[in-house]
């Protein structure tokens, strides 16, 4: 990838993306970051070697890719002043803000602006993200490749077929880390209540979660079949799974993800 990238916002997600790109060999001299927080800019300048400024317009003048990494409530304030630059040069604009639709972004940046909506998740902080992307009709094939390269720097990046699916991505993987962390928290607490020392309950839970994900990724069968293979008839696992299903675990997850999906749509309206 050969492109000049500007990150508007230098928070955790933007810093992770920039760090991931640099770790994969992308030149830090081609990355510019802006933020109101001068201490954050100083930190990124010292640790990543990127260019920094508090002037968004200046930072975007020569950018091929502009990553909007600010909170949704300030997106309009940040985007509108960039409208002329986007109209003149047509850089790719990547938004990683939840609930900000293409319609919103095109209103602020211009109807012909090439825009990609992206929903990453917090494991981007450790280069293990799962991100969904959707491009409007003005994004070229080259720009789509650029967008995927940027997001792939911190993990998995997949294109979805329509913008509505970004809300499903938000419910599944965007919010998903919290679901798994809640399950891990419950397992740790129960392990302690069954007599395990806290450190052992914690380490066993985390390693089990990691190992299960790695097993599923490496396997050529689906997760339902993997679960059956580790559930011996009449054994301890079967007893535990039976109790979970009896209490409606699958239904709880279905309702929870639908709630997150609905909330994502509410935030966009």
Distance between the termini: 35 Å
- How many separate structural domains? 2
Percent of residues in helical segments? Answer: 55-70%
- Judged by helices, strands and strand pairing, the structural class is alpha/beta
Shape: elongated
Beta content comes to: 5-15%
Number of helices: 13
CATH topology of the largest domain: Rossmann fold
- The low-confidence runs, each spanning 5 or more residues with pLDDT under 50, are none
Q: Given this structure, which CATH class of the largest domain is correct?
A: Alpha Beta
Mean pLDDT: 95
CATH architecture of the largest domain: 3-Layer(aba) Sandwich
Largest sheet: 8 strands, mixed
Question: What report would you give on this structure?
Answer:
The chain has 269 residues and is of the alpha/beta class. The chain folds into 2 domains: 5-166, NAD(P)-binding Rossmann-like Domain (Rossmann fold, 3-Layer(aba) Sandwich), CATH 3.40.50.720; 176-268, ProC C-terminal domain-like fold, CATH 1.10.3730. Helix content is 55%, strand content 13%. It has helices spanning 12-23, 38-48, 56-60, 75-79, 83-89, 102-109, 141-152, 164-174, 176-193, 198-218, 223-229, 236-246, 249-268, and strands at residues 5-8, 31-34, 51-53, 65-68, 92-95, 115-119, 129-135, 155-159. It has an 8-stranded mixed sheet with strand order 3-2-1-4-5-6-7-8, with helices on both faces. Helix 9 (176-193) crosses helix 10 (198-218). The longest helix is centred in the last third of the chain and has 21 residues, at 198-218. It starts with a strand and ends with a helix.
């Amino acid at each position: 990838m050969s492109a000049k990238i500007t990150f508007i916002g230098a928070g955790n997600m933007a810093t992770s993306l920039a760090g991931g790109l640099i770790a994969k060999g992308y030149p830090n001299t081609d990355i510019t970051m802006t933020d109101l927080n001068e201490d954050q800019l100083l930190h990124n300048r010292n640790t990543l070697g990127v260019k920094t400024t508090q002037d968004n317009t200046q930072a975007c003048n020569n950018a091929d890719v502009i990553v909007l990494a600010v909170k949704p409530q300030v997106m309009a304030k940040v985007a509108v002043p960039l409208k002329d630059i986007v109209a003149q040069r047509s850089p790719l604009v990547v938004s990683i803000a939840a609930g900000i639709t293409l319609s919103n972004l095109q209103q602020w940046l211009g109807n012909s602006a090439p825009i990609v909506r992206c929903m990453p998740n917090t494991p981007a902080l450790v280069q293990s993200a799962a991100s969904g992307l959707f491009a409007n009709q003005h994004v070229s094939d080259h720009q789509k490749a650029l967008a995927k390269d940027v997001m792939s720097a911190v993990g998995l990046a997949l294109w979805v077929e329509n913008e509505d699916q970004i809300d499903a991505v938000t419910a599944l993987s965007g919010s998903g880390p919290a679901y798994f962390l809640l399950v891990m928290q419950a397992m740790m607490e129960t392990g302690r209540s069954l007599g395990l020392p806290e450190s052992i309950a914690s380490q066993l839970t985390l390693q089990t979660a990691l190992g299960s994900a790695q097993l599923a990724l490496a396997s050529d069968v689906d997760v339902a079949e993997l679960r059956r293979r580790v559930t011996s008839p009449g054994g301890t696992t079967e007893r535990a799974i039976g109790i979970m299903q009896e209490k409606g675990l699958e239904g709880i997850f279905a309702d929870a993800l639908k709630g997150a999906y609905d909330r994502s749509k509410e935030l966009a309206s």
